[in-house]
Amino acid sequence: MCITRSSNNYGPNQHPEKIIPLFITRLLKGLPVTLHGDGKHVRNWLHVEDNCQGVELVLRHGQPGEAYNLGDGTDLTNEELTGFLLSLCGADSSSVRYITDRTANDRRYAMDCAKARALGYAPSRDLVDGLAETVDWYRHNPHRWAPLLGTAAVERTPSHA
Fold first, then answer.
1. Residue 43 structural domain
2. Does any domain span residue 159?
3. Number of domains in the chain
4. Distance of CA 60 to the CA centre of its chain
5. What is the 3-state secondary structure (H, E, C) of the chain?
6. Tens digit of each residue's pLDDT (9 = 90 or more) over 82-124
7. Strand 75-77 relative to strand 42-47, pairing
8. Partners of residue 33 on adjacent β-strands
9. Cross-referenced PANTHER family, in alphabetical order (predicted)?
10. CA separation for the pair 47, 129 (Å, rounded)
11. The pLDDT of residue 144
C-alpha cells in the first residue's frame, strides 16, 4: 500500500463549494467573490486529471509503505488565482471583496514532490489552459452546478482548499 497526498485539485464538475468553482459560478452569475485577508495566501494547484495520473503511477510503480506528494509546482496567491478567473469569466477587479481572514489560515502550503518525480510523475496540464477549460465547463453546464447552489450557498464565503 502507498499513500498519495495531492496539492489543491481543480477541474470540471468539482462541487461549487471550493474556491475555483465557487468563484467561477459566482462570476458567471455576475456576483462578487471574496478573498480572505490580503489575498496573498499561496496555494499549489493541480488539475484533477494530473492528480489521477499521479495516483495511477504510484499505484503501479510506488514502493509499498511510501508516501508520495503530487503537485505541479504552480504556486499562486489567491489574489493571482482570482485575477485569472476574473479574466476568464469576463469580470474585473470591481467583482472582488476583501473580508477578514479566517482564523489560523495558513499563509502558504508547500510540498516536496521529489519522490513522485523520481517515479516519472510530471503533470501535463498548464494551469492557465486548465483553468480556461474549467471555466468553459461551468459556463456550458449550469444544469450540473446551479441546483447545488441554494440561496445561502450563493452568499457564503469560499472554502479555500
1. 3-153
2. no
3. 1
4. 26
5. CCEEEECEEECCCCCCCEHHHHHHHHHHCCCCEEEECCCCCEEEEEEHHHHHHHHHHHHHHCCCCCEEEECCCCEEEHHHHHHHHHHHCCCCHHHEEEECCCCCCCCECCCCCHHHHHCCCCCCCCHHHHHHHHHHHHHHCHHHHHHHCCHHHHHCCCECC
6. 999 999 999 999 999 999 998 888 888 888 999 999 999 999 9
7. antiparallel
8. 96
9. DTDP-D-GLUCOSE 4,6-DEHYDRATASE-RELATED
10. 10
11. 87
Q: Is residue 160 part of a domain?
A: no
Give bridge partners of residue 106 from the DSSP assignment. none
CATH of the domain at 142: 3.90.25.10
Model's pTM, two decimal places? 0.87
The CA distance from 98 to 50, in Å, is 31
Collect the ranges in the chain with pLDDT lower than 70.
150-161
